[in-house]
# Entry
Amino acid sequence: MAQTIKQTLKITIVGCGVVGACIAYELSALPNLEITVLEARSEPGLGCSSAALGICMGVISHKIKGRNWRLRSESLKRYETLIPELTAASSTKIPFNIPFNRRGIVKLCGTEETWESWQQLQTKRQDQGYALNLWTLEQVQAQFPAINYQTFQGAIYSPHDRQVDPLKLTQALVNVCQQRGVRFCFNTTVANLIPEILNGNFLASDYIILTAGVGNKTVTGETPQQPQFQPVLGQAWEVTLPESLWAGAMDPQALDYIDPEIDPGLHPVLTGRDIHFAPLENAPGNPPGARYWVGATVEFPPDEDPSDPAPSETIAAELWQAATDLCPPLAEATLQRHWWGLRPRPLNQAAPVLQWSDRVENLLWATGHYRNGVFLAPGTALWVKDQLLQKLA
# Structure
C-alpha cells in the first residue's frame, strides 16, 4: 500500500460501535491513512453494541457457504489473533481486560428437531476443519443438571465458537487506535450525509465508511435507492446464581477441549429456545456465586412508532418466565442489572449491508449486522480493508 499511495488519504468512519472501532483498528495498521471516527454518543459502544451479549455462533450455525459463512469463518479466525493483539498492546496506564470465553457453545436440541440435519452439519464442519459434538440427553444433563429438559432430546456442542464482552472489546479497540493516531470525535452528530456530500458540504474525506446502526436514516438523509433498516430491540439481564449451572461431570476424555489454563471457572455458553446463558468471571468485590448474562429477545417496533421501540415490560416478563422455565435456579437469582438496546435489521436484503453506495462514489456501507454485529465485526473490518486496497491498487 505504501507503494500505491502517493499522499495521505483521509478516511472518515461514521459510528463508533464495535464494527466502527474494529474497522478503525484494522485500517490504522496501514500506512498513509488519516482516520477520523465520528460518534453521536459520548462514549464508544453505547449504541447497537450495548444491546449485544457478544455470542459468536459460527460453526454451530447452519451457514455453510457464501458470504455469510465466509464472514463468520474469517471473524472466528481473526478473534483468535485479535484478542491477544489487544492484550499485548496494554500498558500500565491502560490495562485491557477483555473477557473472551474460549470454551465454546452448547445448543440444546428440541424434540421437534431432527438429528439428521445436525449430523450433516457435523460432517460438513469436519471437512472444514471444525468439530461439532452431538450430545445425548444423558450427556448434556451430566454437564448442566439444573436445566429443565422436558422439551429437549440432546445438545450440540461447538468448541470452536466464542463469546466476548462487546463494550470492553470496543473500548480496547478505541484505546489502541488512539495510540496509533486515530482521531475520535464523540458527541458529534452526522445528519443528511448523502445530500451534504452531493452538495459538497461534508468533510473533505477521500473515503467515508458508514457503520452507524439504527440511526442510518437520520445519518444519511431521506434519499431514494438506499438501504433501509428496522430497529429491533433486545433485552438481557445480569444475574448471580447460588452456584454454577455447569457440573463438568462428563468423562474427562470427552472433555479434551478443556484447558485449565484457559478461562478458569468459565464453562461453555448455553443456549436453548433462543435464550442464552453466558457465564461471566467472578471478579474480586462481586458477591459470591455464579454470574451470568441471560437474554435476549427480538422485539419488533410497534406500528405507531417504528423508529423508537421502548422495552416491553410484558415481553420482558414473558422472557424471564421462559428463562426460568428453562433454568429453574433463576427463580433464586440475584438481579444485578437489566439492559436493552436496538439492533439494525436490513429490510429487503440480507444482513449485513456491505456495499459501495450507488449515489456517492466514495461512500462504503458496512452496517446492518442485526444480531451478529459483535461476531462479524472482525470479518467486516477485513472486508472493508480489502475493499479500500482494491480501490487503491
Notes: The first helix runs from residue 18 to 28. The two ends are 8 Å apart (CA to CA). The CA atoms of residues 90 and 182 lie 17 Å apart.
